[in-house]
Amino acid sequence: MTLALVDIERAGARQQFLADAVALLASSLDYNTTLTSLANLAVPRIADWCSIDMLNENGSISTLAVAHVDPAKIEFARRLQERFPPDPLGQHGVSHVIRTGESELVREIDEVLLRQAIPDEEFLAIIRELGLRSSMMVPLKARGQMLGVLTLIAAESGHLFDADDLSLAEELASRAALTIDNARLYRQAQRVAAEQTAVMERITDGLVIVNTAEEITFMNDMGRRFFGSGLVGQSVDTAARQVQTFTWEGRPHEPGDLPSRRALHGETVVDLEWKVMLPDVGAMYLQGSASPVDAEDGTRIGAVIAFRDVTERKRADDELRRLGAELEQRVVERTIELESANKELESFAYSVSHDLRAPLRSMDGFSQVLVERYADKFDERGTRYLNHIRDAAQEMGGLIDALLQLSRVTRGEMQRERVDLTPLTQSIGEQLRKMDPGRDVTLGIANGLVTTGDAQLLRIMLENLIGNAWKFSRQNLNTYIEFGLIRQDRIPIFFVRDNGAGFDMTYENKLFTPFQRLHAASDFEGTGIGLATVQRIVRRHGGRIWAESTVGQGSTFYFTLQPDQQGAA
Amino acid sequence: MNVDAGVILLVEDNPRDEELTLLALEDSRVANEVVVAHDGVEALDYLFGTGAYEGRDTADLPQVVLLDLKLPRIDGLEVLERLRADARTELLPVVILTSSDEESDLLRSYRLHVNSYIRKPVDFVQFNDVVAQLGLYWLVLNRSPGRQWRRSG
User: Fold this and answer.
1) Is A129:A185 a contact under the CB 8 Å cutoff?
2) What is the pLDDT of residues B23-35, one digit of tens each?
3) Is beta strand A216-219 parallel, antiparallel or unpaired with respect to B8-11?
4) Chain A residue nearest residue B23, CA to CA
5) Which residues of A touch B16 (CB under 8 A)?
6) CB pairs below 8 Å between A and B: how many?
7) Phi/psi at A289 (5° precision)
């Protein structure tokens, strides 16, 4: 066959060639083989040489196929290319076409052109030997993407390519590019599908896919494990009849209310809960969702049901709930117990207040009447004994009052407000001065001792603390009482310091115990309840109290009115 | 002492407290007649002329009622409530004289418009003092509505 055909003949031959090429390209998805066949189809029907170069993903170029009627020449060309690899930045040739995306037609390869394109003398001599006459290079492009270059060269035939030849080459290139692109897309799709299947199989969630005909088309490993592999290919109705599922509460699911059906209608169903009875395993709890699956163009193609095994979590939750309910019940019970205990305490306190004081008043009153009106009936000793009775009655009255205050301090509701302890303490000092005017007492109260708490309770607390300082410094000529504030770890610590009798630190732990006294009643009177009261008030504010003292040198009581790192003492 | 001749109604169930109160009144030179009711029912009978006091002239009101809180049958707060609910006694001066200083008792008494609330001290000297002041205040200094005309009438 010769290329020197008259126009009509050429046109017919071209059509035939193109038809053959298209048939060839459609024959297989393996484009490597197809393109090699294509190169062989082109030689010698439209060129003496045909080569196809592909652009690799990394930007390099590799020759996929070279065709010539003489296999020896093909081998020669291959070695030549190995020896003289094409210049990637050259102004001509494959890389230039790839860079520009434009076809390149050299109608006549002359000496000037060859010299220009090939600077190497030896290479030039070999090329000259091949007798290349005319060349066409057309890009293989699909969807705007450069895939490679189709090169057609005329040599022995002496044919010179013209515009018609170029358009045939371009037509051929575009068909070939389409084939390559399709094959690549297909491969890519296959890879994606394989990846997706692998992922779907291996994830620990169960997946079931149904198509629009309500047939189960896919179940992954976890899905098969729960519902059995026999369901693939069956309709969801059949599947629902075969595998009975329940709500978490144990009610059987309505067979008509299928999440997949709702999803196929476009609904995304979340928080689905299934209980499945598995042989050998028992009850399993699953939680999942069903969502529609739509194609890119919006057509519904199916629905996917995803679920996971939450049996462990459900059991833990149930246990937690059970414990929570139990705890709540116990709290309720304890609260009732406490409330009734509190009521009892209250009525006890009421009785103490009312009933115990009445007989005391009689003891004191009638003793006093005896002392006053029947003095002549008693000798000095008898009068002294009567006075002992009176003292004892009054002491007991004081104890009852102190106890009542202690219980009230614990019982009453707290009214939290901003309290300035400075003026409060000043007024306590004034009171003490009025009651005990003979004393020389310097009372140093820091300014701005502001805190949050129950004003009434804080007053009782300070009355006790300042009162103690006042009392236990009675034997001093000059008394110094200081009320101030230090800060530790940003927690305000208040302190009341005196230069009084102090106490032995060995007994510090007994300070705050009701009725515990560290001094003889003959030295310092008192009920032994004051500091217990103070401690309760401090504790009710979330704070703690402690003391430091040296016998004969005074005491310092420290207290906080809010919780600190060490917790309430 | 220039005292009103009105009666003092002492409502007290404890006989020793009754005697001590009478002693204290005596010590304070209070010459008014003291009527003692030993529980709430008796007090109400006296004031409303019922029961043992059937036919007593209820217009003749005591000058002051000294009312204990904890009483058999009808307690002090209920007595007070009934007195305040009745037109004849709603303005009658009532002084609570009790051992209790429970906040709740104080509140309830004041809500029922008590005229005074006094806690009986254990110490008899103090108790005497309190009774003397009570006598001075309620029998000498204080003027209550509705007594002047009765005195002159």
Assistant:
1) no
2) 888 888 888 899 9
3) unpaired
4) A369
5) 358-359, 361-362, 365-366
6) 60
7) -145, 160
